[in-house]
Each structure stands twice: as C-alpha cells, then as structure tokens.
Design goal:
Radius of gyration: 31 Å
CATH architecture of the domain at 130-223: Orthogonal Bundle
Strand content: under 5%
Order of helices and strands: HEEEHHHHHHHHHHH
Number of helices: 12
Mean pLDDT: 80
Number of strands: 3
Oligomer: single chain
Distance between the termini: 89 Å
Low-confidence stretches: 1-25
Shape: flat
Strand order of the largest sheet: 1-2-3
Largest sheet: 3 strands, antiparallel
Amino acid sequence: MTDTSIRQRTSEEERAEEEESSESTTTCPECGGRLESDSEHGETVCQDCGLVVEEDAVDRGPEWRAFDSAEKDQKSRVGAPTTNMMHDKGLSTNIGWQDKDAYGNTLSSRQREKMQRLRTWNERFRTRDSKERNLKQALGEIDRMASALGLPENVRETASVIYRRALSEDLLPGRSIEGVATSALYAAARQAGTPRSLDEITDVSRVEKDEIARTYRYVVRELSLEIQPADPESYVPRFASDLDLSDESERRARELLRNAKEAGIHSGKSPVGLAAASVYAASLLTNEKVTQSEVSDVANISEVTIRNRYHELLEAESGAPSL
DNA sequence: ATGGTTTTTACTGCGTC
DNA sequence: GACGCGGTAAAAACCAT
C-alpha cells in the first residue's frame, strides 16, 4: 500500500478489497450467517442474528496514511517489533561484545576501554530496570488482590514492604512473582489483624494454593517475620456484617471466644472454624437466628465443623464461666 | 514417608413448617 | 416434601516427626 500518488478508487479496487475482508472472516457460530467486522466499534458481528463474536479488537496499524515512502519515514514513530521472550520485550539497549565498529573494523584501545565502560553501565541500568518492572508488576498484583479482598491501605503498604524485602534478599529466583506477591499480602493481612484465610487468598490469586502456602512459609522463614496464629476474634466482625447481625451478637461472639480461650478449647483448631461457630452460637443467644449453612457459606467452613465447635463453645461457657 | 489430629464429605434420622 | 439440625463414618487435608 505504498502508492506513489493519490488516485480515485476504482470500483474494481473496492470489490477486491471487500473480498479480501470477507476472506479473513468466517461464518457465525450461532446461525451460520455471514460475519462482518465493524472496525469503528472494534467488533465482529454476525450479519444475520447480530451476535457479537469478537469485541475490543485492536487496530495495530498506524493511524496515519502515507502517500510516498519519504512521507512514511517522516510520519512513522515506531521502531523494531517487540518480543515477549525478553523481560523488557527486547526494547533495551544491547551493546555487542566484539570490539568492532559498524563496518567490522577493530577499535582503537581507547575506544575499547570506552565500550567496556559502557557495557558495564548498560548492564547495571538494565538489571535495575528489570527489578523495577518486577516490582511494579508485583505491586499491581498486590493492589488488585487487596481490593478484591477488601483489605485496607495499610495492609497493602505492609505487603509491599514485605515484597521489597523479599526482592532485596534475593528470594525471588526460582519463585514466581505472583506467588511471592500473594504470600506477602497473606502475611501482611495477618500481621495487620485483618486476616484472610488461605482459601480466600487463593480465590483471588493466580497461583495455586499449595504454591502460596509453600512460598509463604519460605518467605516468613527467610525474612524471619513474626506472625502469630490468627486470632479467631479478628474474623468475627466480617462474618457478623456479612450476615447482617447486630453489634450485640458480635459482642456475644467475642465473649464466647474469650471464654473458650480461657478454657483452652482453641488450641489446634482452625481459627476460622472457631469464629464461625461463635458467630452462629451468638446468633442463637440473641435470637437473630442465622442458619448453619449461611454461616458456613460466609466463613467457608463446613457445617459439621461449626456444629462441633459451637458445642464446645457453649460447654466452656456453662461449664467453667470463670477460671 | 508416617501417624495422629482436624476438617470435610456424604449419608441418615428427626422434628417442624 | 423441603428445610434446619444433629450425629456418624470414612476420606481428605494438615502437621510434626
């Protein structure tokens, strides 16, 4: 399409173009009708039934037109194509290792020294850049997951601090950015007293549960973070509000938990289960009954566990109120 | 890897609406 | 008959060793 002059389009050309565009499309998966690509809206639409087959198509071509090659050079603002095989898509500067100039002539010793210095610095900048990019992606992920989980600002802050530490201590090699970012968030949420269960974290992460757990343990150990087992009470407010329970119920739930702690019921049991059971028990005590299955839903805990725990809670309450 | 503990899954029976 | 609840047994998951 590098015509050297502007011409009136002949009808023949137009027909040729039309054929070309219909060649790239196929038939509608719904009704078998002809597909038409609507470049203005970036959609591919079926002519017969109106089914939108593809949306958000991106026109990767230039938005300008050139009528001769000189103009093309002038208007073009792009360089070499990018590749995804390199962390920076191949956009960074490369300096050849051979001490030759562009014509293949050997460089003077002075020039050689200069090139050596340039190589050193270029390498430094490049790796620094890659770390920056790495960090940027990780922080973006942390932010995304944190908002999906409704975690406040300070947790994200903590998470990014943990991530930065992991990065500077060279914990990344061999582990995915995603995994470490997720672990950092998990750790941060627990440290901040607004824990999310591993299952909840897994739901919003792109990484498998096992990997998160493994990476988390590793990060905690290497950075010697001190994280206490989650306090069941910290789950209560969230469950209570998810179930539209009154403050009174929430208070009762906390009371039950404190009692249980005194009685030593809670060791070894999952904090989430305890919290769920206390919320359920409290709802009974305050006549705001919610069903076991509702609680099990918001807490992601089986009903059986709720039953077992809440029996224990009530026992501790009546059996040994003080001690 | 192993064994002990906890949680989950699946099923059953009972009472109520 | 569907629902909420309680219990049980077996499977699965988890944890320390």
